[in-house]
């Protein structure tokens, strides 16, 4: 493992894993019925992109309090996606296997965001 300094939000593992989730959601929602384009598809895509956007914005903030605030927003959008995934599965828009793959990815992302929140809450505010 290299000791690469984090210089951009794209260097954050949480952002990288959340970006994978973005791609998974976009690929799967392409398969949803056309009449859902302005319903669940739009909601899911907006929520999932909000996860990575808030991680990116939090990265650029100076104070730990501000960083944490954006990471909490990201976590809120992640919870929204988890709820929408359950709805999509239960409605029949995705099968159990795909649901499990995407939901497992959302859990990975959640753990990483939680780690960032705990870290920035543990150090003195700057």
Secondary-structure blueprint of this entry?
Elements: H1 13-29, H2 40-60, H3 64-91, H4 96-122
Helix pairs in contact: 1-2, 1-4, 2-3, 3-4
Question: How would you characterize this protein structure?
Answer:
The chain is an all-alpha fold and 126 residues long. The protein has one domain (10-122): Up-down Bundle (de novo design (two linked rop proteins)), CATH 1.20.1440. 74% of the residues lie in helices and 0% in strands. Helix 1 (13-29) runs antiparallel to helix 2, helix 2 runs antiparallel to helix 3 and helix 3 packs antiparallel against helix 4 (96-122). It starts with 12 loop residues before the first helix and ends with a helix.
What is the number of helical segments per DSSP (H or I, 4+ residues)?
A: 4
Radius of gyration: 16 Å
CATH class descriptor: Mainly Alpha
Q: Show unreliable segments.
A: none
Tell me how many strands there are. Answer: 0
Query: How are helices and strands ordered from N to C?
Result: HHHH
Q: Which descriptor suits the 3D outline?
A: elongated
CATH architecture: Up-down Bundle
Q: What helical percentage do the residues reach?
A: over 70%
What summary fits the major beta sheet? none
Structural class, by secondary structure, is mainly alpha
| Alpha-carbon distance between the two ends | 29 Å
Mean pLDDT comes to 94
What is the name of the CATH topology? Answer: de novo design (two linked rop proteins)
CATH superfamily: 23S rRNA-intervening sequence
């Amino acid at each position: 493992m290299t000791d690469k300094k984090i210089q951009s939000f794209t260097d954050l593992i949480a952002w990288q894993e959340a970006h994978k989730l973005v791609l998974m959601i976009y690929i799967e929602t392409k398969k949803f019925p056309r009449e859902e384009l302005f319903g669940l598809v739009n909601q899911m895509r907006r929520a999932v992109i909000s996860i990575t956007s808030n991680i990116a914005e939090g990265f650029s903030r100076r104070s730990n309090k501000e960083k944490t605030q954006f990471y909490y927003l990201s976590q809120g959008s992640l919870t929204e996606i988890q709820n929408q995934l359950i709805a999509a599965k239960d409605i029949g828009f995705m099968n159990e296997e795909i649901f499990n793959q995407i939901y497992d990815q959302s859990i990975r992302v959640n753990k990483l965001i939680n780690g960032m929140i705990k870290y920035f809450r543990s150090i003195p505010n700057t």
